[in-house]
Amino acid sequence: MSSDLTFIGLFLQASFIVQLVMLLLLSVSVASWTFIFQRSKALNAARTEMRQFEDKFWSGADLNKLYQELSSRAQLTGMGSIFCAGFKEFVRLRKSNTPTNGVVDGTYRAMRVSMSRQVEELESRLPFLATAGSISPYIGLFGTVWGIMNAFIALGEVQQATLAMVAPGIAEALIATAIGLFAAIPAVIAYNRFSHQVEKLENSYGNFMEEFSAILHRQAAAQAQQV
């Protein structure tokens, strides 16, 4: 057996199955880091959008002007999208002379649908990170077991076994487990962190829906009394 214990040397000496496992895990790691950067950027943008919208909404801005400003944008996301969906439904139901309770219920359902879409978008790619974090160590372990098995089979074919003969085979096998952990640990950390951030955003969206529904209920009730 060769004594080249560098990473490239061990990879080239490994059996085809172990090489395939290593390449698969490296691909998973690259994909995981790509999604980690994408999700981090998307969640940061969602938090920024939420803060900006809340500052404008609670500053006492006219709801009609705020709706016109937001609806004119090419792409609407986050809390702004929830507001526009609710306000649009509110205006539509008021024009059709729907009772106050029906207006509030219809508005809330429209906002709920919009919020579900926003949360679904924020959670995209997270299942991949969860899968990568859970199965990568086992894939790496499979490569390790296969490599050690081949190392001992080759060792059994020689008359006199030494540590120098078995070390390269075991080392190349253990690299598969190391790569599996390298792919799994960042994916698990990112998944837990992003899931917590999505949950906080979802709670903020839900709180806004409740507060906005209360505002619209008061407006609908006041308009009904004037009729």
TrEMBL record:
InterPro entries assigned to the protein according to its UniProt record, in alphabetical order: ExbB/TolQ_transport, MotA_ExbB_proton_chnl, Tol-Pal_TolQ
- Tell me the Pfam families matching this sequence: MotA_ExbB
Intracellular or extracellular location(s): Cell inner membrane; Cell membrane
| Bilayer-spanning residue ranges | 12-37, 126-149, 169-191
How is the protein disposed in the membrane?
Multi-pass membrane protein
Coarse class of the protein's main subcellular location: membrane
Name the Gene Ontology biological process terms: bacteriocin transport; cell division; protein import
Q: Which UniProt keywords apply?
A: Cell cycle, Cell division, Cell inner membrane, Cell membrane, Membrane, Transmembrane, Transmembrane helix
Please provide one cellular component term from the Gene Ontology annotations of this protein. plasma membrane
Keyword Cell membrane assigned to the entry: answer is yes
**Family according to the record:** Belongs to the ExbB/TolQ family.
Assembly and binders: The Tol-Pal system is composed of five core proteins: the inner membrane proteins TolA, TolQ and TolR, the periplasmic protein TolB and the outer membrane protein Pal. They form a network linking the inner and outer membranes and the peptidoglycan layer.
Q: What does this protein do?
A: Part of the Tol-Pal system, which plays a role in outer membrane invagination during cell division and is important for maintaining outer membrane integrity.
What is the official name of this protein in its record?
Tol-Pal system protein TolQ
- Read off the lineage from the record: Bacteria, Pseudomonadati, Pseudomonadota, Gammaproteobacteria, Alteromonadales
